Amino acid sequence: MSEVIEANHRPVRDVSATAASTQAGPGALVIDHVGITFTARRDNKRYRAIKDVSFTVRENEFCCVVGPSGCGKSSLLLAVAGLVPASHGEMSFDGNRIVSPERDRAVVFQSASLLPWRTVIANVSYGLEMMKVPRREARERSRAIVELVGLKGFEGHYPHELSGGMQQRVNLARALVADPQLLLMDEPFAALDAQTREVMQAELLRIWGQMRKSVMFVTHQIDEAVFLGDRVIVLSKGPGTTIADIVEVNFPRPRSEEVKRTPEFLALVDRIWNCIRSGATAQN
Ligand SMILES: Nc1ncnc2c1ncn2[C@@H]1O[C@H](COP(=O)(O)OP(=O)(O)OP(=O)(O)O)[C@@H](O)[C@H]1O
């Protein structure tokens, strides 16, 4: 749910913005007192999705974002991608202000949206073709990424010949092939069955371990966030979403499924779950 707002709303600044900006090193994503509003077509009024959110994603960090349905997770991710403007606040990546989509940031959505008339390798190389990368180089880079995501041998397959998990691997390869510094993932495994989802979580960690990108990963699944992330940002209930908690996850890497059965893991899941369930409001 979003909140209708007055036309002249101005955000209140507090100490967390300063903290967010100064702790960020090079290669960091800085989200500094960002708010997001939408103008609804139905009544032309402005509705606030995100009220005031500040956090950083450090270079090479795997940062997960969770929160109640409708709290604005996807909107925030789209804003970082440069696809939705912030109504106030600032966002920067690697020191550059975010105002539009750029090649340093790639997005992976829940739906793979592959081009059905193109093979796996042609889907993956499409972005490079658009960037006018020479054909041979584009093919070589695409082959390497297809292998990295575990699809060696399937280069000539068409999307309809692939399982949902394999399609999502292609989707990931499409995002990675242009070598972005920041990967933005919006519920990428939500449409997969539980077993495939677990496989893909492990695969994503393996790939991330090899490529070491910064990742902002939005999910509904708290255990997924704790399993994957170095930190979990917990957003408060909308409307007027802020940050409810920031949870450090210190399990050693590489992580295996076993960690999910440890008391420490379950305690973190519980902490986040209680925070979301209680409809917590801002502490940070
Ligand atoms: N393009 C848009 N126009 C108007 N309102 C929008 C638009 N996109 C999102 N919203 C509103 O902003 C709020 C946040 O939506 P958003 O999809 O970002 O939340 P979410 O936390 O990702 O939700 P979910 O977990 O259910 O996917 C919602 O109230 C939604 O209706």
Automatic annotation (TrEMBL):
CDD domains linked to this entry: ABC_NrtD_SsuB_transporters
UniProt GO molecular function: ATP binding; ATP hydrolysis activity
InterPro entries with a match to the protein in the record: AAA+_ATPase, ABC_transporter-like_ATP-bd, ABC_transporter-like_CS, ABC_transporter_ATP-bind, P-loop_NTPase
The keyword Endoplasmic reticulum is annotated on this UniProt entry: no
Pfam family, one: ABC_tran
ABC transporter domain boundaries: 31-262
Keywords carried by this UniProt record: ATP-binding, Nucleotide-binding, Transport
PANTHER family reported for this sequence: ALIPHATIC SULFONATES IMPORT ATP-BINDING PROTEIN SSUB, TAURINE IMPORT ATP-BINDING PROTEIN-RELATED
Protein name as it appears in the record: Nitrate ABC transporter ATP-binding protein
